[in-house]
Queue: 2 jobs
Job 1
Amino acid sequence: MADPLVTLAARLQPAFDAVAGRTGVDPVVRPSDRADAQANGSLALAKELGRPPREVAEAVLAEALKIANLRATLEVAGPGFLNIVVHDDFLADEIAAVSSDERLGVRSATPTRRVVVDYSAPNVAKEMHVGHLRTTVIGDSLVRILEFVGHDVIRENHIGDWGTPFGMLIEHLLDLGETEAAEHLSLGDLDGFYKQARAKFDADDTFKERSRARVVMLQGGDAETLRLWKLLVGLSTKHFNAVYERLGVLLVDDDLMGESAYNELLPQVITRLDALGLLQQSDGADVVFPPGYTNRDGDPLPLIVQKGTGGFNYATSDLACVIDRIERLNADLLLYVVGAPQAQHLSMVFDVARMAGWLAEPAQAVHVAFGSVLGSDRKMLKSRSGEPLKFIDLLDEALVRAEASVAEKNPDLGVEDRLTIARQVGIGAVKYADLSTDRVRDYVFDWDRMLSFDGNTAPYLQYAHARICSIFRRAEIDRTSLRNREPSIVEPQERALALAVLGFDSAVADTLEKYSPHRLCTYLYDLATSFTSFYEHCPVLKADEATRLSRLVMCDVTARVMATGLGLLGIDAPEQM
RNA sequence: GCGCUCGUAGCUCAAUGGAUAGAGCAUUUGACUACGGAUCAAAAGGUUAGGGGUUCGAGUCCCUUCGAGCGCGCCA
C-alpha cells in the first residue's frame, strides 16, 4: 500500500530494464496533467540506446503489457512519454487499504535515524519576538513529521543562557532586590529589565566593574551567583513556556539544552582540536582555518574557537554541541533550524567538525535555513514603534482577529466554542502562513490574507475538514464502520479525490526529502480543492444507499488525511467552525 | 571587493531536468428556497529580470550582466 504512482514506478521498472538490457533504469514516473501520471524514462533511455524515443516508448509499452496485475492503462504520447491511467478498481482497493490504516498509507522510514532538531532558541532575559516565529514553527513541524514516519527525534531548545550579559543582569537583579526583580520579570517585561541593566552598564563605571566581576564569579561556579542565575533562567523559561503553550508547540522544559549545558565540553573542544593539529594562532586567538573561506582582503577566514582573552565563543559552543549530539546522544542526523544569515557560520562549524572527525558518515548535519518575515513595506517586520514585535503580542492579535472572524461567520456558536475555535483558527493561520511558502524565501506577513477563508490558507483547509464533519453529524453513522470498505470510483471528481488522498504518502516523503513543510501544505491545499469539487458534484447524503456509503468512505478518509496532515504542521482541525 | 540567497501573471505564491509554466487574491462572466454559498464553474492575465551555454528537452543546471536582501576575526 502506498501512492499508486510509487507502486506503478516499481511495477514498470522491469519493463524499462528489459528494453535497456540492464537493471536499475528509473521509469521517471511523475504526476501529469494529461493523465493520472506519466513515465518519462523512455527519453533518457533513447539517448542511451541511440534509438528514437517513441520507438523505445513503444518497446517499453510492449514489455509492460506482459506484466501481470499492472492495473493501469498505458499509452505512448508526445515525443515518447507513457501516459498512465490508473484503473478505478485499483484506486478503490488502495483507498480501502489507506482507510483501514492508522497511518493513512504513509510508509515508515527505513532505516530510522536518531535525529536532533535544534530549534526555537530564545535568549534568557530577553522577550521572545517575531524573529523566533519561523524557527519555532518550522522546527516543530519537522519534529512532528519525523516522528510520524518513525524516526527517533530529540528536540533541543538551545537557549542563550550564558555569556557576558549575565554579569550585568545579575547585578541589576541584586540592585532591584530579588522579590521586586521577580515581580518585574513575571509580568513578562523581560526587555525592560534587560534594557535597564544595559543602560546602567553603559552609564555607570562602578556597575560595569561589578558586572565583570560577577561574570567571573558565575564562570567560577560561585554558589550564590549560580542561584541568582538560575532564578533568571527560571523566570525566563516561564515566559517561553507561556508562548509555547499559546502557540501549541511540543517544546517543554525537558527539551531545554542551553549554552550553559556545554561548559564542561568547551575546554575539550580546544584540546581535541589541538591534539589533532588543527589549531592555529591568529591575532592572539586560537582558530581553525577550514579551506574555502576568505575575508574582505582575500585572506583565509578563520573560525575562532578561543578568543584572545581566553574566553570561548559561539563557535566553540556549536562545536561542543556537535560532539555532544554525536557522541553522547548517538544522533546520526543533526538539523539546525536557523535563519539563512547564519549559513556561513554553520557551514564553517560543520567543516571544522568534519576535519576533526566528529562529524563523519553516515552522520550528517543540515542547516534548515529560512528567510525573514517582512512587513507590508517589504522590510523586516517590526511593531509600530519600530521595536521588534513581541511574539506574545503577535499571538494575541491572531486570537482577537480570528475571534472576530469566527463570530461574524458563525454567530450561533457559544462563547466557549467561539474562543476555542478562534484559537485553533488564529494560531493555525499564523503557522500555515509561515509554513506554506518555500522556507528559504522571505515572506510578507499579512493578517487579512492568512485569515482569509479563500485561497491557500489554514482556515480554508480547516473549513474543508469541518464541512466533512458536518456531513457525519447529519449522516448518523459510526465513522469507524466505514474503514476498510471499498468505495466505487465513478465520477471524475471521485477519481481526482481518490488520487489526491493516495498522494499523502508521497507528500510526506517529499516534505522530508528537503525538510520543506510547504510541500505538505501544497498537498493539503490540493486535497482540499479536490474535496470541495467532489462535494459540489457528488451529493453524499442524498445519494442512493450504495453510493452514499461509498461517498461516506471517501469523506471519512479525506477528513482523516486532512486532520492528520494539519496535525503534522502543528495545526488543529476543529470539527465545526 | 569577495561570498551566500533570491528575482515567475497587477499582488501573494507553486512548479523532484519533461508536453501548452500552475494556484489564490484582485478583475470580468455564469450558477443559489444551499448534504455549511465560509462555495463552485469559466474567462482574461507570462519574452519565468536581460544575455549566452549544456541537454533530445531548461523557470530549474553552468557562465555573465542587472536588481534586491543578508553575511564577511574575537557578539550570539
Job 2
Amino acid sequence: MGHTRWLNEEEKRAWSAFTNAHALLYRRIEQRLKRDFGLSGLQYEILARLGDAPNRELRMAELAGALVNSKSGLTYQIGQMEKSGWVRRRSCPSDERAVYAVLDDAGMALLERAAPGHVELVRELLFDALSPEQVRALADGLGEAGRRMTGVPGEADPVRGDCAASAEGGVAAADHPLSRREHQGPP
Amino acid sequence: MGHTRWLNEEEKRAWSAFTNAHALLYRRIEQRLKRDFGLSGLQYEILARLGDAPNRELRMAELAGALVNSKSGLTYQIGQMEKSGWVRRRSCPSDERAVYAVLDDAGMALLERAAPGHVELVRELLFDALSPEQVRALADGLGEAGRRMTGVPGEADPVRGDCAASAEGGVAAADHPLSRREHQGPP
DNA sequence: TACCGGTCGTTCAAATTGGAACATCCAGTT
DNA sequence: AACTGGATGTTCCAATTTGAACGACCGGTA
C-alpha cells in the first residue's frame, strides 16, 4: 500500500468548505423549519420526496434509500408523521412485505406552505454565493461522486411501482404541485 | 415579498447532488471509522482539530464553533473521549470560565493511525470523481457560502489563546504531524 | 464596591438515531 | 410441495443529540 495520497492545499480547502458549508446550511434550515412549521429537516425531506413521487407515495425502502437514512430511523419518523396526520401507511396486496408511505392531504398542504421559505433560504444561503459555473461544477462533480457511491452502472430500470395505487377516492396521478419551474434565463 | 425564486433545473441538480453526496460520504466515513477505530465521525473531527491546533488544545466554545455542533453535544463527547484517555480537560487560571480540551498522547497516536485511511477514503470517494476545476469551484464557492453564513466581515482577530499553555512536560509547540503536504503538481 | 449584561461550560429531560435481532414474505430450486 | 437465499419492515436498546435552564464568571460601569 502506497504512502497515503494526502490532500493538497486546494483539496483541503475544498473538503473543509464542503463539510463546513453543509453543516452550517443544514443547521440553519433545520432551525427555521422547526421554528416555522415544527418540522425537522428529515421530515421536510420526507414530505418533499413523497410530494413529487408518482402517486405521492413511496415504499419505505425506496424512501430510506433516497434519504440515505437507516430503515429503523425511517420507521420511527413515518410513525411520528402518521400521528401528526401528514402521512399514512398503505400495504400492497401483490407484495405483502411492502409498505407504502403515502402523503396525506394535510401533509401536502404543509409541504406547500413550507417549501417557499425553504427554497428561498437555500437560495439565499447557498446559490446567491455561487456563480453559474460553480453551480454547474457542484451539480456535475458531486453528482458524479454520488453516483459512484451508490453504484449506478447502467441505469438498471427501477421496476418500482409494481403495486400501483388503484381504487382510491378521486385524485389519480395529479401533477406535482411543487415542481414549478421558473426560468431564470441564463445570459 | 416576491413569489419565491424557485430553483432552476441546474440548481436542483446541484442541491440534490450536494446533500446526497454529503450524506453518502459521511455515512461511509463514519462506518469505516467506527469499524476500524471505534471512532464516530465527530470524535475523529475533534481529534483532527485538536491535532493541528497550536498546543493541541482548544477552548470548548472554539471547538464547538469549528465543528458546528452544540455546546452540550461537545461537552458530552469530550466526556466520552476523556474516559477513553484521548483527551484531557484543562482550565485556564486567567479566565475561570474557560475550559480547554487538550489532546493527549494516546489521542494523538490514534489520530495518526486513523488519518491515512480517512484521507484515502475521502480522496477515493470524492476527489477521484472531481476535476481540478471542480475542486476549485467547491473550495471557492462553498468557501464563500460558508463565510457568509458565519458572518466574517473583516477578519476580526480571534484573540484566542490568551491563556497560553506554559509549563507542561516537555513538548512545546511541535509542528503539526498530520499537516504534510504532497504536491500533486497541476499541469 | 456592588451591579449588569453577556459569555462559558455543564446539567437535564426529551427526542432521535442506528445497528442487530426478528418474523414475514417472495422467488427460484429441488 | 418443501427448501433456501434474499428482501422487508418493525422492534428493541443503547448511544447520541438538542435546546432550555442553570450557576459561575468576566468586564465595564455607577
